[in-house]
Amino acid sequence: LGLTDQLLPTNDDHRRAMVVRRGRLVPIPEGFELMAPRNPWALLKTPIFSLRGKLRILWERFTPGKKVNRDESLESFVVRRFGREALDNLVQALVGGIYTADPKTLSLRATLPRFLDMETEHGSLIKAMRQQHKTKAQNKNDKATGARYSLFISLKYGMQTLPDALVDALPAGALRCNTPVASIMRTTSDTGEDHHAWQVNTQAGEVIESDGLAITAPAHRAATWIASIDHEAGELLNDIDYAASAVAHLAFRRNDVPHALDAFGFVVPARENRTIIAGTFSSTKYVGRSPDGYTLIRIFLGGATQSGAIPEDDNALIANVQNELRDLLGIEAPPLFHTLRRCGPCMPQYKVGHLDRIAALRQRIAEHPGLELAGSAYEGVGIPDCIHNGEQAAERLIDQLTTPST
Asked: Of 49, 265, 282, 299, which has the fewest Cβ atoms less than 10 A away?
């Protein structure tokens, strides 16, 4: 898309994150990567865990591994390998910040399979991570430490640049905005022979025909259209649950924020009983996100573990956020401005067995040539995952439409 020169890396000067522990922000130990520590000394010094909790985490090196290629929930895996305290005080918040998921049901195989693979190959995640760190240390270009912050990247003028560039790259007339789909159906040729063509009917009465169709809507929306074509596929799509979330941005004068903001942001464990799940110091994490003398903070709410923490009233929601920022960052002044985006059921929940469900769904969809599914509900929720997923769907459609039938 020609956006390479606009890619914006994170600010190396503050490459760390924090977690809320007993009502205050505490730095996450150096080398703690999502669920496993690489630096035992940093772990021993942190106030996030009790002494007993720290010893239980370090005992992971001697915990027998299970060499069974099966799915497991995040909670089951972490408690089995590191103990309950590791999950409740940190891991649930770190992973929840990505997937807004309940650790009791989140599929590890579908979200963080490399940790299962570490257990299988090395018998211990701590051993595996230390070995990987030694290998990385040999590469002078790899500056990543702790969590994988170097993988975070944005665009100079914000993420809206990406869809805008995609729209500009489309042929004229290819995009129809604000055009709800009523139904999709298979069509046949005049001779009655099935020629793998599709018809999209909009709520405005427009009929759009195509040889190939890739549906990238959320699974529960896709289910309403596909159920009439394949009932089993529709049921499998409906089995993918979603969680609601909201994102608030608040701008302040820097002098009105007592906290040093010397990190990328913070995560909030569910056990802290707060109304937010995470916060990003946007103007610290990315250079240029606010003018000098000001700061921009992004707050995340909702998810599977705090679905009731999003008031229906916008003013009440922002008031909750301001109360949290007062408690955690000492901000007494009102924001200069704020924005609020509510995302209804928008976060797909990859529950245990998710990959098996997706495999069964792909098998059903394969029975309908010219039809493909793509999006965050299937093989990854991140933007790179969705781009890759969409490209694969397009390539499969092209192969189907250009390969002569036998």
From this structure: 282
Tell me the backbone φ, ψ of residue 336, rounded to 5 degrees: -65, -35
DSSP 8-state symbol, 24 = E
Find the DSSP H helices in 59-177: 74-82, 84-86, 92-99, 108-111, 113-122, 125-137, 161-169
Please report where in the chains the tokens 């995340």 appear, as a residue: 300
The total number of residues shown for the chain amounts to 406
Q: Which residues of 278-287 are buried (b: 16+ CB within 10 A; e: fewer)?
A: bbbbbbbbbe
**309: helix, coil or strand?**
helix
| 43 contacts 51 by C-beta, under 8 angstroms | no
Instruction: State how far the Cα of 99 lies from the Cα of 94, in Å rounded to an integer.
Output: 9
Q: Are 74 and 80 in contact (CB under 8 A)?
A: no
319 CB neighbour count, 10 Å cutoff: 12
What tokens were used for 289? 């996100």
Q: Which of 210, 182, 207, 216 is nearest to 195 (CA)?
A: 210
Answer yes or no: are the C-beta atoms of 34 and 112 closer than 8 Å.
Answer: yes
In this structure, the strands spanning 18-21 and 265-267 are: parallel
Alpha carbons 302 and 278: distance in angstroms, whole number:
10
| Helices and strands counted in the chain (H then E) | 15, 16
Count Cβ atoms below 10 Å from residue 344 Cβ, excluding itself: 12
* Whether the Cβ atoms of residue 251 and residue 294 lie closer than 8 Å to each other: yes
> With the C-alpha atoms ordered 158, 163, 166, 172, is the resulting torsion angle positive or negative?
negative
Instruction: Determine the 3-state secondary structure of 102 from DSSP.
Output: coil
Residue type, 312: E
Q: How high does pLDDT run on average in the chain? A: 90
- pLDDT, tens digit, 9 for 90 and up, residues 72-120: 999 999 999 999 999 999 999 999 778 999 999 999 999 999 999 999 8
CA distance from start to end of the chain:
37
Report long-range pairs for 168-175 (Cβ below 8 Å, ≥24 apart). 169/1
Residue pair 75/35 in contact (Cβ under 8 Å)? The answer is no
DSSP structural state of residue 333 = S
Tens of pLDDT, residue by residue over 19-36, are: 999 999 999 999 898 888
Helix (H) or strand (E) holding 281: strand 278-281
- Nearest one of 351, 353, 348 to 104, comparing CA atoms: 351
* Amino acid in the structure at residue 171: P
Q: Is residue 308 classed as helix, strand or coil in its secondary structure?
A: helix
Q: Which structure tokens are listed for 123?
A: 């018998």
